[in-house]
Amino acid sequence: MASRSAQKNSRRAPRPKRSGKTGLPAGTLVHLGERKIEHATITLVEYDAEGLTETRFDSLAACQACTPARPKLWLNVHGLHEPEVMQEIGRRFQLHPLVLEDILNTDQRPKIEDYGSYLFIVTRFFNYDAATLSVTTEQVSLVIGPNFVLSFQERPTGSFDPVRDWLRTDRGRIRQLGTDYLAYALLDSIVDRYFIVLEQIGERTEQLEDELIASPTAAQLHVLHQLKRETATLRRTIWPMREVINSLLRNEGRFFTAETQLYLRDIYDHTVHLIESLEAIRDLIAGMLDIYLSSISNRVNQEVRALTVFALIFMPATLITGIFGMNFRSMPLLENPSGFLFAIGMMVCVVAVLGIIFWRRRWFG
Questions:
Q1: Are the beta carbons of 106 and 80 closer than 8 angstroms?
Q2: pLDDT score of 5
Q3: What gap in Å lies between CA 346 and CA 320, rounded to an integer?
Q4: Coil, strand, or helix at residue 270?
Q5: Is residue 264 within 8 Å of 250, Cβ to Cβ?
Q6: Residues 185, 186, 188, 190, Cα dihedral to 10°
Q7: What was the pLDDT predicted at 111?
């Protein structure tokens, strides 16, 4: 029952339909994807070395009337289904219409684009559900400017909460350094989340390997294919993410200082580690498919061998029964009162001899 429930719950969410934008001009703001919260929320964090101001906007009008007082800004948006909010943010920060269009399209692959005065980065969050063995993904967009960072999420996930705590408590040097360090901290939070998901999948894969070796079942084959599909989803994000970080390292200091680039190198090393771990899990899953097929084939061979052994054991008895069952008037032992017992004795002896031979050759295993 649990496996059936997992199969039902592991159905994927419908993919965004691009047909909704067919025929519209480039840069048209249309949300493509699932609406995951009721209303979009905007949070502005203004900070410098002396302090921090955090403001939550409950309406678009309040956002329009805001005038930042501190030099460094982090604007975070939860909910991408309200184009008018994106349009206002694009106007305030002079974002290109294509950037806003990509933010609203939640089916983007990880990428980085240089628009001269700012960088646009698309990446993804992942969450692993151990009950359904499914990986859910959500798009995260970042706009990195000289004194601001804009982050756009489909819904609140809590993945950036540690960065907010660092800013509030002034831990480390995050307030003293520029917004490029803030961008690094957000990217690092995203990559760290990949490690958590990958570790959970790796543990389930190793557990499944032990189960397959002990007793392979059809339900385990379903789990195996589910894990294979989810690791393919991770691979489509982690590989491009490495190229995103590599592009930031090649940015030649336009948006990231030499000091922050040292931290970006650490993220790059993490992505390489992620790729190696992911490929190891994929190889293990591929090997488990071979283990499953070999186990099933070995089980069939054992069953066929057992049936063959029993057939060979009783074949002589069948032959003897057939001989003495022929309708002839004159046959040996036909008139002998002990003929029946003699025939039964012959059958038992033949079965015993063949059984001993097969047992010594270990054909019963």
A1: yes
A2: 42
A3: 8
A4: helix
A5: no
A6: 160
A7: 93
What is the amino acid identity at position 2? Answer: A
d(CA 233, CA 262): 29
Spans in the chain with pLDDT lower than 50:
1-11
Closest CA to 34 of 139, 134, 135: 139
- Cβ–Cβ < 8 Å for 48, 121: no
Q: Are residues 179 and 325 in the same domain?
A: no
Same domain, 278 and 310: no
Total count of domains within the chain:
2
CA pair distance 343, 331, nearest whole angstrom: 13
The parent domain of residue 309 ranges over 304-360
pLDDT for 27 = 61
- Residue 255's identity, in one-letter code, is F
CB within 8 A of 260, min separation 6: which ones?
177, 178, 180, 181, 184
pLDDT at residue 67, as a whole number: 80
Please check whether residues 339 and 206 belong to one and the same domain.
no
Q: Which of 248, 276, 294 is the last residue of a domain?
A: 294
Amino acid present at 224? L
Residues 251 and 343 in one domain: no
pTM: 0.76
DSSP, residue by residue, 304-338: HHHHHHHHHHHHHHHHHHHHHTS--SS-TTSS-TT
Count, residues in the chain = 365
pLDDT for 347 equals 79
Among candidates 187, 171, 167, which has minimal Cα distance to 72? 167
Which residues contact residue 321 at a Cβ distance below 8 angstroms, ignoring those fewer than 6 apart?
A: 343, 347
The pLDDT, as a whole number, for residue 3 is 44
Question: What DSSP letter does each residue of 218-238 carry, written as one string?
Answer: HHHHHHHHHHHHHHHHHHHHH
State how far the Cα of 160 lies from the Cα of 334, in Å rounded to an integer: 95
| Look-up of token digits 């919260």 | 37
Q: Are 234 and 196 in contact (CB under 8 A)?
A: no
Q: How many CB atoms lie within 10 A of CB 144?
A: 24
Last residue of a domain, one of 294, 320, 348: 294
Collapsing DSSP to helix, strand or coil, 296 comes out as: helix
What is the distance between the alpha carbons of residues 100 and 83, in angstroms, rounded to a whole number?
A: 9
Nearest-angstrom CA–CA distance, 25 and 14: 25
pLDDT at residue number 152: 95
